[in-house]
Automatic annotation (TrEMBL):
InterPro entries: Endo/exonu/phosph_ase_sf, INPP5A, IPPc. Residues 4-386 form the Inositol polyphosphate-related phosphatase domain. It comes from the Eukaryota. Belongs to the inositol 1,4,5-trisphosphate 5-phosphatase type I family. PANTHER family: INOSITOL POLYPHOSPHATE-5-PHOSPHATASE A (PTHR12997:SF2), TYPE I INOSITOL-1,4,5-TRISPHOSPHATE 5-PHOSPHATASE (PTHR12997). Its EC number is 3.1.3.56. GO terms for biological process: phosphatidylinositol dephosphorylation. SUPFAM superfamilies: DNase I-like. This is inositol-polyphosphate 5-phosphatase. Keywords: Hydrolase. It comes from Cloeon dipterum. GO terms for molecular function: inositol-polyphosphate 5-phosphatase activity. It holds the Pfam family Exo_endo_phos2.
Amino acid sequence: MAKNSTPVMLVTANVGSIFEDPEVMLKIWTTEFLSQIARLEPKFIALHCQEVGGKNYEQSMKHVDHFVDLLMTSEQLRLFDKVRVYLDEDYSSAEKFTALGSFYFVHNSLTDVLIWDFKESDFVPLNGVEIHSGSIEDVATKEKSKFPQDFFPECKWSRKGFLRTRWSINGTIFDLINIHLFHDASNFVAMESAPSVYSKNRRRALRHLLERFHSDELDCTPFFLFGDFNFRTETQEVVKKLSEGLIAVPTFKYNNEEECTKVIYEDEDSQVVLSLGKKEFCHVDHQKIFVDKNGEWLRQYDKEMEAFSSDLFEFDIAFPPSYPFEEDERGAKCYMQTRCPAWCDRVLMSHSARQLIQDHSESGKKLEYFLMGQNTCMGDHKVIIEN
């Protein structure tokens, strides 16, 4: 940040799959995360997690305490004496549950740190360690909400929403917003149009959020918005590119020639090159085409940010798609053959927040926007860090 520059580390991580095998994955994930803290030496850390407790949260939520403990007792965070953790774990409240988790660690060298009280509409001093878990509806130092269900009509029930905190560090005021938007439920539906209906729904939800922030009492507050946006490449255009010169062979549901269950694309020798299903996206050279050169060719189809260029800024992406990676240790660098790989996980900011970021070239330290754990199994989403 500009005046009295503070080294800041902003992290987003969809941690849902690491809770599916907690005895193995929690240790691997936290070790990789803590190694980045040791390397980057930040003084303020914001970790935004989505799907805390996992996809099967009723069974897996009990492992969240261990996840928190691994972080809180680590040597790398020993000197961070001011901590706020917000864990939305109350899945019994379907109309409010988001499964978001926001972690904030402040180094003991920072003394002028305040956090906003949304009920009192004023800043309060930040001291000590507070971990808010279970039902956090009454916690005044955060704002949390689910998106209206009609934003995602294809989904009967959703945990998607946001969690916001407001900070003052050395007199610089800014918001940090944890966000989770809806995914693509079917490759076939995603292929029907460009942009897809899913993309349009995400756009509507994000526009709703931005308008909400612009209308509040501190609408000029710079903000950093980072989480799992579920931004996808335009499936229709990607399939068109990958299937050039190939022959499409559809398979239909038994006794129903209107419901396609699978489409394979063959070359002139009848060899299958591309195979698509509702939850299948498989190319004969799957890992090569998406991993080599960080999937650079795919960036031209990553268009969901374009609609918000006047509102939001993102540093250049020079890392491979963050989703969907294999969820076991053996496939750390491999993509699952279920969806077209995409940059779902992002760190975005308002243009005013962009102005807060220090010109790192003057201090000799280059800003980093990268994918954590490229050679380590981090679950189906790789962690994105901006420092």
